[in-house]
Each structure stands twice: as structure tokens, then as C-alpha cells.
Amino acid sequence: MDILIVEDEAEIAQLIQLYLEKEGFACQVCRDGLTAIQLFQEQQPDLIILDLMLPGLDGLEVCARIRQKPGAKDPYILMLTAKGEEIDRIIGLSTGADDYMVKPFSPRELVARVRALLRRSLRHGSSSQTYQTQHFSVDVEQRVAQRRLEETEEPLDLTTLEFDLLTTFISYPGRVWNRTQLIERLWGSDFFGDERVVDTHVARLRKKVETDPANPKFIKTVIGVGYKFEDSVS
Ligand code: CA
Question: Could you tell me if residue 212 is inside a domain?
């Protein structure tokens, strides 16, 4: 099995399954958290699409248990939430989710995100690059990002997308990126959807890397174009 879909709303689960199977992914669906844990242990999926609100164990609990399980295969987790649910906690990512989508979402965008996550797992290990600027360092292979402020280094708790966004920025300090270019980098050319999704992820990344996200020092907006990353290269 490639993908486990954990969703108690049958129509949504079917829709996701339909789109993913059309793309050639093998899927299994379950409707509650306990079954999800059981299937995860038995089948070792590469990726789990995990609804937040579930009967029994909720998505956050399922996510936490999967991440705590030592030795097991570490799947990518794409969380689904309804508007107004605990989005902040997912974004805070004490949960260990790699990415999330807010309902209602476009199935095509979901497929694009799934592809992007799985593509990463294929690439994983082949890149051994690290990037360093005065205040940041990114190890692409280990997928570790750190921020250095006033001599203290602290690891950044980033989603997969945020990590790739920071890596993109840090790999070309000073380069101006438009949204289309960033989408190509993050989701590939098969992205369908609204380009403003980039702004959302930039805003979230700023919250994690900037001391004052309202007055960003590193990730600057280039009016009428997009964004650029500024930091001196040591
Ligand atoms: Ca639900």
C-alpha cells in the first residue's frame, strides 16, 4: 500500500481515493483513529492522509502515536482540517504533520501535494547539500534547519513545505522569486490552484524565522513581484 486515507466522511474519503487511484497510487481507506494505527503498523504506508476530527482517537493523537513509534517506517502525514478547527496547532506542528489542507480543498491540489511529498522521499538521500548564511543553516539531507540569533542556535520546527521554501530562499540569497517560480519549486509544474497559496506559506514561515514577522528582516516582499531572502553569506 502506498497511501492510507483516514477520513470518517465517506464522500470525502471516496473522492480522495478516486483521484489518487486515477494517478496510480494504491490506497486503503479507514474511518477511525484506532483502525488507522493498526493499518499503519500492518501495512507501512508511505503517506497518510489524516483527517483531524475522527471518532475515537482524533488525528492529532494518531499523528503523535505514529511519530512516537520507534523503528517503524516514518510516513509522510498530510493532515486535513475543516476551517475553524485547530489549525493553529497543526501549523505549530508539535503534531509532526508534514503538510495540511483545509476543507473544502481541490482534489487536484491534494494530488499535487501528495506527489510533491512522495517525490521528496524518492530524492531523499541523493542530496547532501547544506546551505549557510549569517543567521540560518539548512541541511537538505538531514532535513534540519537552524536559526542563529545573538550567538544562540535553535532548530526550526518547520513543515515539509516550509523547509523546502526556506531551502529555496537560502540557496539563492538576494534572488527575487515570483509566485509561479516558487510553486514550480515546491509543488512542481503539475500544480493546480490559487497562486496565493504561496503567500500563506510565506506568512507561516515568517512566523517561525522572523523576530518580528510584521517587519520581516530576512524574507522580504518585493511589491508587484514576489519575495526575496536577504541575509549575508558568511
Ligand atoms: Ca472528520
Answer: yes
pLDDT at 189 over 80: no
Residue 62 lies in a domain: yes
Instruction: Tell me if 231 sits within 8 A of 133, measured CB to CB.
Output: yes
Ligand 1 centroid–CA 54 distance in Å is 5
Strands ordered across the beta sheet of 152-155:
130-132, 136-139, 144-149, 152-155
Instruction: Give the number of other Cβ atoms within 10 Å of residue 81's Cβ.
Output: 22
Q: How far is the CA of 1 from the centre of ligand 1 (A)?
A: 22
Range of the domain at 16: 2-124
Last residue of a domain, one of 95, 124, 153: 124
- 87 C-alpha vs ligand 1 centroid, how far in Å? 14
Distance 51 CA to ligand 1 centre (A): 6
Is 206 inside a domain boundary? yes
Query: Ligand 1 centre and the CA of 137: distance in Å?
Result: 38
Question: Residue 92 pLDDT more than 60?
Answer: no
Q: Looking at the structure, do residues 107 and 14 belong to the same domain, yes or no?
A: yes
pLDDT digits (tens, 9 = 90+) for 96-119: 677 788 888 999 889 988 887 787
> Rounded to 5 degrees, what are φ and ψ at 19?
-65, -40
Question: Is residue 204's pLDDT more than 90?
Answer: yes
Task: Tell which of 91, 107, 124 closes a domain.
Answer: 124
Q: Extract the C-alpha cell encoding 195.
A: 497562486
Compute, in angstroms, the gap from residue 138 CA to the centroid of ligand 1.
Answer: 35
Residue 62 and residue 86 share a domain: yes
- Whole-number Å distance, alpha carbon 96 to ligand 1 midpoint, is 19
Among 54-58, 59-63, 67-71, 89-93, which stretch is predicted with the lowest mean pLDDT?
A: 89-93
